[in-house]
Write a structure and sequence with these properties.
The protein is mainly alpha-helical and 266 residues long. 59% of the residues lie in helices and 6% in strands. The chain contains eight helices and four strands. It is globular and about 55 Å long.
C-alpha cells in the first residue's frame, strides 16, 4: 500500500445546484474542440472547403455519442437494457463503448462522403483518424478521473488505489488501465501526425486509417488482459468482449494498410 498511488479524485470539478461540471465531460469536449482545430488546419493545407468542416464535426460528434451508447447497450448490457429500454436514453448514468463509437463514426462518415464531400470514404477516414486518436486520449483520461475501467491487482510501484471505484477492495493497488490506454492513444496520435505531415501517407487512400485501426485496437487488445471485466458475463471467457471486438478492426486495419501500398498515389 505504501508503494501505490492513492487515487481519490472527485469526478466533479464544481457543482451549481443540480448542475455539475465533471472532468469527463470537460475532457470529452476538449478532445473534440482540439480535433476540430486540427482538421481545420489540415483542410486549409489541402485547399478543402471549410464549409465541409462544420458538417464533418456534427456527423462525427453525433455518431460518437449514439454509437458509443448503443455499443455499450448491445455489447455489454443487453440483458439489462432489453428489460429496461427507458434506461438506454439515460446516458448521464454512464455506459459508453469505444467499439460502438467506432462503428457509429464509420457509418456516419459513409453518409458524409456520399452527401457532402463526394470523395471516397477512405479519404474522409484518413483525415478523421488523427483527431479521433487524440480524442481517445482525452476520453480515457476522463475515465481515469471517474475511477472507472480500472485494471487488475498489481504490486508495481505505479499501481493505483482507486478508492472511489465500485469494487469490494478499493485499497488494493491496481493497474491504471485507463492511463495505459490514454498514453497508447496519445502515442498513436503522434505517429499519425508524423505520417500525415512528414510523409506522403495521406496521398494513398486507407493508409492512415489502416494504421489507426492497427495501433489503437492492438493496444486495446493487450491492455484488456490487465483490466477488470466490465460485465459479469465476461468472467470465464477466453477473451473478453473488448478483445473479441478489437480483432476485426485490427484485421481491417492490416488489410487497408497493405492495400494502400498496392495503389497508385491518389
Amino acid at each position: 500500500m505504501l508503494l501505490s498511488i492513492h487515487w481519490d479524485v472527485d469526478p466533479e470539478i464544481f457543482k451549481i445546484g443540480p448542475i455539475a461540471v465533471r472532468w469527463y465531460g470537460l475532457l470529452f469536449a476538449l478532445g473534440f474542440l482540439l480535433g476540430y482545430q486540427l482538421v481545420e488546419r489540415m483542410f486549409k493545407k489541402e485547399g478543402i472547403p471549410l464549409e465541409w468542416l462544420e458538417k464533418l464535426f456534427m456527423y462525427t460528434l453525433i455518431a460518437t455519442v449514439i454509437g458509443a451508447r448503443l455499443g455499450h447497450v448491445i455489447f455489454y448490457g443487453w440483458e439489462f437494457y432489453s428489460q429496461h429500454p427507458s434506461e438506454i436514453l439515460k446516458i448521464w448514468h454512464g455506459g459508453l463503448a469505444s467499439h460502438g463509437a467506432t462503428i457509429g463514426i464509420l457509418t456516419a462518415l459513409y453518409f458524409y462522403s456520399k452527401k457532402v464531400s463526394k470523395k471516397s470514404i477512405l479519404w474522409v477516414l484518413d483525415r478523421v483518424a488523427i483527431p479521433v486518436a487524440l480524442a481517445g486520449f482525452f476520453i480515457r483520461t476522463g475515465n481515469l478521473m471517474n475511477s472507472e475501467i480500472i485494471g487488475t491487482q498489481t504490486d508495481l510501484a505505479w499501481g493505483f488505489q482507486f478508492v472511489r471505484a465500485h469494487v469490494d477492495d478499493p485499497l488494493t493497488a491496481r493497474h491504471p488501465a485507463q492511463l495505459y490506454e490514454a498514453l497508447c492513444y496519445l502515442s498513436s496520435f503522434g505517429v499519425l501526425m508524423f505520417m500525415y505531415w512528414k510523409t506522403n501517407a495521406k496521398e494513398f487512400s486507407g493508409r492512415l486509417i489502416g494504421a489507426f485501426f492497427m495501433l489503437i485496437f492492438t493496444a486495446r487488445f493487450f491492455i484488456e488482459f490487465i483490466k477488470e471485466n466490465q460485465e459479469a458475463f465476461e468472467e470465464g471467457m477466453f477473451l473478453n468482449m473488448g478483445q473479441w471486438l478489437s480483432i476485426p478492426f485490427i484485421l481491417l486495419g492490416g488489410y487497408l494498410a497493405y492495400n494502400s501500398y498496392q495503389k497508385k498515389r491518389a
